[in-house]
Amino acid sequence: MKIGLFIPCYVDQFYPKVGIATYELLQKLGCEVHFPMGQTCCGQPMANSGYAHLTKGCDANFIANFSGFDYIVCPSGSCVLHVKDHLHDEKQEEKATAIRNTVYELTEFITDVLKIDHIDGRFPFKVGMHVSCHGQRGLKLSQMSELNAPFFSKPEQLLHSIKDLDLVALTRKDECCGFGGTFCVTEEAVSVKMGQDRIKDHESHDVDYITGGDMSCLMHLDGILKRQKSKIKTIHIAEILNSLEN
């Protein structure tokens, strides 16, 4: 199975260990993983700010880099959702359609395509799972708490298989952290207050780490934690799933 590894800008620039963990994890799970060196931004920041018409260059470049793979996998629900919903190119629409149908968020790919529900690993810490909005409400990675429907969570399903990991049940398990991409710039006061509220829920459960599938949300929470001089750390789910059992 030939996989194209799609790494978001902020992971590439600020959290390369997340990209490396994703690459290593997919290899361990039997995938042939390739990292297209010419990949750049998928265009989500412009589209979210109302400038989707300026993303044509990003779209064309994405198609040039990721055409021909069996699947495209990314450790970010928000970037995956953007590509699924917005990747178009009037000159290459057939290729764009193929990519939209084969791009997956990491945990979604592991559970839905590879059909894996157990990963051998060890992470001896108390962990809170932050559910990002795009992943939950856009990609349906987990059930929304306001619905009267059976609970499911693809990320949590995988985390439960990690040895010695104590996954806590948060009080408001799918509340937004306030990052929201450019929202945290244009409405910084509201964004910070939402982040502080999200952290209080984790603090009340005495977690060691906050994990999640979007490093952007974790970056937002990490900034607040550091300013509060909190002992709680953030870690992307790929880094936990890539841990070795020993």
UniProtKB/TrEMBL annotation:
InterPro entries: Cys_rich_dom. Residues 4-83, 127-222 form the Cysteine-rich domain. One of its GO terms (molecular function) is oxidoreductase activity. It comes from the Bacteria. One of its GO terms (cellular component) is cytosol. Pfam families: CCG. This is L-lactate dehydrogenase complex protein LldE.
